[in-house]
Design a protein that fits this description.
The chain is globular, with a radius of gyration of 16 Å. It has a single domain, classed as 3-Layer(aba) Sandwich (Rossmann fold), CATH 3.40.50.620. Helix content is 46%, strand content 20%. It has a 5-stranded parallel beta sheet, sandwiched between helices. By secondary structure, it is of the alpha/beta class.
């Protein structure tokens, strides 16, 4: 019986280490016949009182997010030869991640890259390591955020 390909989920944000997680996941997918999924969460902005201004801000944020995801999808295709699944959500990154993992059984592995700065590994890694890991049904791969492409190629 054939098993479904592994799906490596990467959280797309503006962190310096996110491209490291995406490259690692792309290499792992390429070498294992897997797929890539990318989740980007647009945070809810505080209300400014004017519905029209708020709607325009949300529309602009969504357009920017769609452009980012399209650009990264091309990068994944160039690096791994696969077209990624794209999830674009609005809300809290933690909540949207946990909801996606609970509702999409195709996702096999969550890939995150740890921050390299003095502020620690990053809010999602800290959250998952403290409370949420017990609720997960999949493994989490944490990649050191300072790895080069050559170092990732050597280990993936």
């Amino acid at each position: 019986m054939d098993r479904a390909p592994r799906v490596f989920l990467v959280i797309v944000d503006d962190s310096a280490e996110m491209p490291v997680a995406l490259y690692y996941a792309s290499r792992r997918a390429q070498r294992s016949g897997g797929r890539i999924a990318m989740l980007h969460v647009i945070p809810h902005e505080e209300s400014h009182g004017l519905a029209s201004v708020e709607a325009l801000m949300r529309q602009e944020a969504r357009q920017e997010a769609e452009q980012l995801m399209q650009r990264l999808a091309r990068t994944v295709y160039d690096e791994a030869g696969v077209i990624p699944v794209i999830y674009l959500k609005e809300g809290s990154p933690r909540d949207e991640l946990m909801e996606l993992l609970a509702n999409d059984p195709s996702i096999s592995i969550l890939v995150l890259a740890a921050g390299t700065g003095p502020e620690g590994p990053g809010p999602l890694i800290s959250f998952l390591a403290s409370k949420a890991v017990a609720k997960l049904r999949i493994p989490v791969t944490i990649v050191p955020g300072g790895l080069t492409h050559e170092e990732i190629d050597a280990i993936s």
